[in-house]
Write a structure and sequence with these properties.
Blueprint lengths: L13 E7 L4 H16 L2 E7 L2 H5 L6 H24 L1 H17 L5 H12 L3 H8 L5 H15 L7 E4 L2 E4 L9 H15 L19
Parallel strand pairs: 1-2
Antiparallel strand pairs: 1-3, 3-4
């Protein structure tokens, strides 16, 4: 058997920290990739909340995107309510439930998507929705967001993924890798993260996100 040189693969279960905003299609694809990686590599994903609304609140953005950012507060605040009430373990389940509605099912009414997700999970739908319409837990949301951004800098978006003490924005993909292909991409990412002077690879994107 030929030994593969230069590829760092985890030999013991390790935690991968993942910061997401529920409305971001690229974060959604990367998050589904991480769930695939969990099946083929000894890792556990720890889900964290960040917010494109927070990231862009002082930015000069066009009016249509500004409107989207206003609507994006609700899913992020609802995620924070789930975290506050039910702990970190429930955050990933909420993300899967609300993200499936927003991305796979094309639900653009974020309140309806959040409501459906909370109902599916058997959580306190009306209480959480009411609280998520306020800024009552914004200090907790902003602290989680800041923790992710501090690892990569504020000139990026979602997702932020951290492993072996190194964090990156991305990887950005337009398809969800499955099975061993997902594992190979993860191995490559871990290998690159092992070089403290490595920062970025980028090319123009020519395909749109596909979630199936």
């Amino acid at each position: 058997m030929t030994e593969t040189v230069g590829i760092a693969t985890p030999t013991e279960n390790e935690v991968v920290d993942f910061w997401f905003d529920s409305i971001c299609p690229f974060a959604w694809i990367t998050s589904r990739w991480m769930l695939e990686v969990e099946k083929v590599r000894p890792i556990t994903v720890n889900w964290h909340i960040m917010s494109l609304s927070v990231l862009n609140e002082d930015s000069d953005i066009e009016e249509g995107y500004r409107s989207l950012m206003e609507r994006a507060w609700l899913p992020a605040r609802a995620a924070t309510q789930v975290w506050e009430r039910h702990g970190n373990g429930a955050v990933g389940r909420y993300y899967t439930a609300v993200g499936t509605r927003i991305h796979n099912e094309g639900q653009r009414d974020f309140e309806a998507a959040v409501r459906g997700a909370l109902d599916e999970l058997g959580l306190e739908t009306e209480e959480i929705l009411e609280a998520a319409g306020t800024d009552v837990l914004d200090s907790k949301l902003r602290a989680s967001h800041a923790e992710g951004i501090e690892k990569v800098g504020d000139d990026v978006g979602t997702p932020v993924v951290s492993f072996n003490g190194t964090a990156f924005f991305g990887p950005v993909m337009t398809r969800i890798p499955r099975g061993e292909e997902a594992g190979r991409i993860f191995d490559a990412a871990v290998t690159l993260a092992g070089f403290p002077y490595f920062y970025e690879i980028k090319r123009s994107r020519t395909t749109d996100p596909q979630f199936d």
